[in-house]
User: Which sequence fits this backbone?
């Protein structure tokens, strides 16, 4: 009897206190009931045998694991991982950071497995503190160079990539002896930031949007009543709008691919023709030691066009194949019904626009005619980005300048494929959409008013509709 | 019974805290453990600024120089004083001015002590009319109305209203799906459209906030189609730094080629020399080179009623110079 009385009083209190909270919004999580909805080539590519062969060869190269010497040479002497596809794998090749416990269960963070998999020697390399099995793939940067006493020198901006691993100790690395960067020392003075891989689905469409379209969209959003400005990053050579990377610092997918091959995997190529020392090694005037150069023994650049090839696929360099693969990757397919049902998703889409998210996350832009394949031309790119860089304020600042982007400016992250992404924001700090949205409210940020409208002026039900819509993408 | 109730409240508290944890704590995805070392860089601080606002001196007021202090928003450049309603506050300051002349002057929200059932947001912005095609605040509000997307329904098209002693152009619109209303009131000061945007589901709350605007201080010149400076401040003239008005011109020499727009406001003294340079957005090296150059420029002194007066105008560097517009020609012949 006493137990029953307790239970009924508890139930009464729950009923009194919980009605509003019962409707509190939650991130539905990675969409898992619609299959993998990204990673396919354009239909026009599939319909053309030559284009499809090109795409498939590019996919093969994208997933290939590189070694220092051998059939796939050139890895290192410093690198973040040995394959494009290992980092860009969620939910399919070309995507972003995977996880083993989240659909489609691609696997643990591959950077956490490099010793176990023999990619690096465990006696000469350690797994940095920010790489964990259930966390995102990360690259690290030190915003500033260091003073002699180990503090950050704020008069000497750095911001270059500090590769996580070295080939030192590998059987194919000879006498090359390089230490890893001092990540713990950088952490001790708060002079380290992270980036996660950007997904590449649909990037061929982004490459094929004319500057005039972007500028017209920018002009149409003027005086938006939401506190949003925005501007573009520009290519330093020709002054046109650049668009790839977290700060829109890269002009083209070819440059994006060539730089990543060089910086992330240590492979010199026809765009970045030398092995890359760390920013500090260049600052000291030393560069890489001689016994760490030409480790593959094939000269430079390590990746080239093959004059002895017999077809377009075999003539083309790895870098150009990566470019082809990314260009031909179609945009992800959103769901109209999952999660939350068609009504909620449709409502969420309208709310997303009404509260102002769509001022920056432009739902769609139209591409120009394409010579490459029909799917890229005069197409609707549902990217949910204006490709502008915006001040995101103190919460998200990483104090890295790239091109015209300052320390707190980031490109509006395209949201297509969001429903099957695990980690959010440039450093992967969030794996919950509400965390990512909250980070938009920030001192000095352009998105603060819009975030406050979402947070304080929508009902929990309306917020849930927006979350369902985002996870439908 | 008291014991039972106590146990229930403990369980209830536990349930609430568990729920809060489930919804509020994001997964980190990495180890961000604190460490006790000294000399750390400050967190959440913008140290590498990129293109930003700056000025040739720190005494002359600039549009972004307004602040909320002691529950009052004060902007010396615009001559604007706005007392916040009780229980409203500024949580965050806005971003720097954009390179097309858009300012977030203040973002006002309910404080934690706010007791009302409906919440809202007050956004105070400015648009520099030198860097927009619109000729005045009324035109710009009409542009805003015309560009509203299909999610919004206009409740009241731009119309002239008077609140207290002040004149504004007012535009009301609503998002039916969000059940949110936007009431925007704009006036023109020193060739800027200064705008108050109220957003809420509660139109009564919004109206009460709007009526409180009658108590704020604005300069005499403020109005939807006036606000062209003069009196205690320089006369503002669009595109004055063009054609025959420029007697001597030295182009800036920048060491690094960049492609960002660099909007600049200058104040020209009665002798035709530049006395103040304000960069809405520029890298430090650009600001230095352009300032050095502008201080060597000479202008035809501007006459109003036969007397020389100071002039404020805008110049866009970093892009092809704007062509003179009809408004500049009219202004010169004023």
Assistant:
């Amino acid at each position: 009897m006493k137990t029953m009385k307790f239970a009924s009083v508890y139930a009464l209190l729950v009923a009194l206190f919980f009605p509003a909270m019962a409707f509190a919004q939650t991130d539905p999580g990675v969409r898992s009931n619609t299959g993998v909805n990204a990673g396919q080539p354009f239909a026009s590519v599939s319909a053309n045998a030559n284009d499809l062969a090109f795409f498939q060869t590019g996919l093969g190269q994208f997933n290939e694991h590189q070694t220092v010497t051998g059939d796939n040479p050139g890895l290192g002497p410093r690198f973040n991982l040995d394959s494009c596809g290992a980092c860009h794998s969620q939910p399919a090749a070309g995507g972003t950071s995977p996880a083993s416990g989240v659909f489609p269960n691609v696997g643990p963070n591959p950077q956490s497995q490099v010793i176990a998999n023999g990619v690096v020697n465990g006696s000469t390399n350690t797994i940095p503190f920010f790489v964990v099995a259930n966390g995102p793939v990360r690259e690290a940067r030190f915003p500033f160079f260091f003073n002699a006493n180990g503090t950050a020198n704020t008069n000497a901006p750095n911001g270059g990539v500090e590769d996580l691993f070295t080939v030192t100790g590998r059987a194919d690395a000879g006498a090359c002896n390089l230490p890893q960067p001092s990540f713990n020392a950088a952490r001790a003075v708060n002079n380290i930031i992270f980036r996660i891989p950007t997904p590449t689905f649909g990037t061929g469409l982004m490459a094929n949007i004319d500057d005039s379209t972007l500028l017209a969209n920018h002009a149409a959003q003027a005086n938006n009543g939401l506190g949003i400005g925005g501007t573009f990053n520009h290519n330093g050579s020709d002054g046109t709008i650049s668009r790839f990377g977290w700060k829109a610092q890269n002009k083209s997918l070819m440059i994006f691919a060539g730089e990543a091959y060089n910086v992330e995997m240590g492979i010199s190529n026809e765009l970045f023709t030398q092995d890359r020392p760390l920013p500090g090694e260049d600052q000291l005037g030393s560069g890489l030691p001689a016994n760490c150069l030409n480790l593959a023994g094939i000269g430079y650049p390590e990746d080239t066009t093959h004059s002895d090839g017999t077809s377009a696929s075999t003539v083309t360099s790895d870098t150009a194949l990566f470019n082809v693969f990314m260009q031909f990757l179609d945009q992800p397919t959103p769901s109209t019904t999952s999660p939350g049902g068609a009504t909620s998703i449709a409502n969420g889409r309208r709310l997303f626009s009404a509260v102002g998210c769509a001022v920056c996350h432009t739902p769609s832009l139209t591409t120009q005619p394409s010579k490459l394949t029909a799917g890229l031309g005069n197409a609707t790119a549902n990217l949910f980005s204006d490709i502008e860089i915006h001040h995101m304020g103190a919460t998200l600042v990483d104090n890295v300048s790239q091109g015209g982007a300052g320390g707190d400016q980031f490109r509006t992250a395209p949201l297509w494929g969001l429903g099957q992404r695990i980690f959010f924001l440039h450093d992967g700090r969030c794996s919950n959409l509400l965390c990512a949205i909250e980070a938009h409210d920030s001192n000095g940020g352009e998105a603060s008013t819009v975030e406050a409208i979402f947070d304080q002026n929508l009902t929990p039900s309306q917020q849930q509709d927006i979350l369902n819509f985002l996870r439908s993408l | 019974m008291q014991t039972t109730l106590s146990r229930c409240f403990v369980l209830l508290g536990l349930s609430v805290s568990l729920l809060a944890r489930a919804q509020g704590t994001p997964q980190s995805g990495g180890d961000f453990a604190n460490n006790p070392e000294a000399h750390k860089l400050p967190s959440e601080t913008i140290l590498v600024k990129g293109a930003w606002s700056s000025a040739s001196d720190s005494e002359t007021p600039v549009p972004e120089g307004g602040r909320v202090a002691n529950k009052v928003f004060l902007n010396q450049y615009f001559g604007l004083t706005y007392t916040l309603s009780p229980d409203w506050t500024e949580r965050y300051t806005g971003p720097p001015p954009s390179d097309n002349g858009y300012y977030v002057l203040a973002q006002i929200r309910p404080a934690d002590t706010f007791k009302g059932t409906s919440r809202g947001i007050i956004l105070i912005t400015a648009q520099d009319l030198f860097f927009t095609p619109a000729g005045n605040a009324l035109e710009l509000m009409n542009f805003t109305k015309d560009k509203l997307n299909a999610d919004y329904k206009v409740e009241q098209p731009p119309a002239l209203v008077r609140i207290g002693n002040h004149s504004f152009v007012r535009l009301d619109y609503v998002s039916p799906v969000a059940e949110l209303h936007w009431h925007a009131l704009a006036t023109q000061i020193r060739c800027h459209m200064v705008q108050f945007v109220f957003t809420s589901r509660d139109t009564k709350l919004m109206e009460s906030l709007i009526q409180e605007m009658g108590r704020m201080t604005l300069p005499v010149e403020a109005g939807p189609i006036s606000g062209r400076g003069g009196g205690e401040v320089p006369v503002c003239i669009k595109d004055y730094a063009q054609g025959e008005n420029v007697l001597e011109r030295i182009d800036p020499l920048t060491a690094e080629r960049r492609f960002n727009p660099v909007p600049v406001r200058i104040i020209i003294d009665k002798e035709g020399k530049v006395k103040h340079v304000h960069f809405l957005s520029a890298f430090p090296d650009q600001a230095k080179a352009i300032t050095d150059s502008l201080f060597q420029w000479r202008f035809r002194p501007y006459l109003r009623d036969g007397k020389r007066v100071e002039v404020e105008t805008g110049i866009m560097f970093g892009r092809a110079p704007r062509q003179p517009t009809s408004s500049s020609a009219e202004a010169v012949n004023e």
Remarks:
- Residues 257 and 318 of chain B are 9 Å apart (CA to CA).
- The mean pLDDT of chain B is 87.
- Chain B touches chain A through 83 residues (CB under 8 Å).
